[in-house]
Amino acid sequence: MPPDTTVVLALAAALIEAAFGYPPALYRAIGHPVTWMGALVGWLDRALNRETMDFSARRAAGVLALALLLGVTGLVAFAIQWALAVGAAGLIALAVVAASLPAQRSLDEHVRAVADALGQGLQEGRRAVSMIVGRNTAVLDEAGVSRAAIESLAENFADGVVAPVFWTAVLGLPGGALYKAANTADSMIGHRSPRHLAFGWAAARIDDLINLPASRLAAVWIVLAATVTPDASPRDALRAVFRDARRHRSPNAGWPEAAMAGALGLSLAGPRIYGDARVEDAFMGDGRRDANAADIARALRLYRAACVFQLGALAAVALALAAL
């Protein structure tokens, strides 16, 4: 599939997903591509990750598991693209399939739910934010809940929205699907638990690599969005990115988080508690820590503007390629 077509595919998929999301009825009926990928990752984990194996053997098994996951995903996605990408009607059908990969609408809904829940009390806010973060929410106060929601919004904008759209624009449906498969594997086995430290090594390294361009792009879209969002500062967003992004313990999450923090005048990240363990991390931004539900609403306005800038960039690239 030529580049002018893959960019149009990514643009159409992003527009469809923004407008309609992933229909709940369809999810109940057949699940979602991420759930199918997750089921395969879970099966490979159970089949190949044996506690009796030494570290090297478990790491090799993890490499094999990732290769199998990506091989199956790539073959299925290529077959779908080959079958559908014929004529305008086929491209529209392919865009509907590709619309299952980004998560603009669902991310907005989940983060907005945290702001709404905080209006009903701290316990409701903790419950809502526990749906989108992995940290120990029982110890969070209102400011902690609000910061967690905003941090999740920033990070997931990069890996849940920008990255699948970017890889679809570059490599078509197989690119977007392969990205989602690798990202799903990282979320399931790419952490430093005793079971997955070795087995998830490959998934974690690949995820870091394939998120490099999207995390930087996400920061760009947030900085640009701050130019048109009331009570947001593009200058402070840019300053926070250059000063703080590389100090984050993740090679990618710091970019959108720093941009979001600077734009909103907040201080995000920093020390956090996962389970019973305290994770030390650098602060993103140098603003106030006392975030609240109103700041979540501000972050969502910034996020929506950033999504629009991404769509505009895709449209501009598509027009430029068509003119060649």
Automatic annotation (TrEMBL):
Q: Does the keyword Membrane apply?
A: yes
* Predominant localisation class: membrane
Record keywords? Cell membrane, Cobalamin biosynthesis, Membrane, Transmembrane, Transmembrane helix
- InterPro entries given in the database record: Cobalamin_biosynth_CobD/CbiB
Sequence similarity: Belongs to the CobD/CbiB family.
Which positions, given as ranges, span the membrane?
60-80, 86-103, 302-323
For whether the record's keyword set contains Membrane, the answer is yes
UniProt name for this protein: Cobalamin biosynthesis protein CobD
Q: Which taxonomic lineage does the organism of this UniProt entry have?
A: Bacteria, Pseudomonadati, Pseudomonadota, Alphaproteobacteria, Hyphomicrobiales
| Domain of life of the native organism | Bacteria
Membrane disposition: Multi-pass membrane protein
Which pathway does the record list? Cofactor biosynthesis; adenosylcobalamin biosynthesis
Pfam families found in the cross-reference section: CobD_Cbib (PF03186)
